[in-house]
Amino acid sequence: MNTWDILKIFLILFVMMGIMYGILYLVKKYFYSYGKNGNSSATIQVLSTQTILPKKFVSVIRFNNSVYLLGVSEQSLNLIDKIEEYELENINKENNNVKPNFLHLLKKNMGFK
User: Fold this and answer.
1) What tens-digit pLDDT sequence spans the chain (113 residues)?
2) Edge-to-edge strand order for the sheet containing 44-53?
3) Is the separation of the CB atoms in 44 and 59 below 8 Å?
4) 67, 60 contact by CB (below 8 A)
5) What SS3 state is found at 95?
6) Are 66 and 85 spatial neighbours (Cβ–Cβ below 8 Å)?
7) What CA–CA distance (Å, rounded) separates 94 from 59?
8) What total number of domains does the chain contain?
9) Is 86 in contact with 76 (CB distance < 8 Å)?
10) Helical (H) or strand (E) element with 14
11) Which residues pair with 82 in a beta bridge?
């Protein structure tokens, strides 16, 4: 086995890695729509998530026109409360009065959500 044979093996390896990376990019771009709001048929929406401790969160989700407050940890998912629509509207009115932080403004101006 000479030097040219070893170079051919590495060249083929890099070409195959490039092809696999390209296929992965295309699959992620065109087949998975996780986190995109363009899908109106999605019945679950995460409205807000707040970290309480490492790997422990409180999340507000909307599922089939109902709003739920969930406690999420690494081992479990617990229903804390079901929020009525009028309570959610009051929360939204209060949140609209709060000034957005720098990260929120940066993401908004760069076109991210």
Assistant:
1) 788 999 999 999 999 999 999 999 988 888 776 555 555 556 888 888 899 999 899 998 888 778 899 999 999 999 998 877 666 666 666 666 666 677 777 777 777 76
2) 44-53, 56-63, 66-73, 77-83
3) no
4) yes
5) helix
6) no
7) 18
8) 2
9) no
10) helix 3-30
11) 68
Please state, in angstroms and rounded to a whole number, the distance separating the CA atoms of residues 108 and 102: 10
| Cβ atoms < 10 Å from Cβ of 60 | 19
Are both 67 and 101 inside the same structural domain?
Answer: yes
- Tokens 């929120």, located at residue: 104
Q: DSSP secondary-structure letter at 99?
A: P
CA distances from 69 to 22, 25, 62, 92, 101 (A): 40, 35, 9, 15, 24
49 and 103, same domain (yes or no) = yes
Quote the domain boundaries for residue 12: 1-35
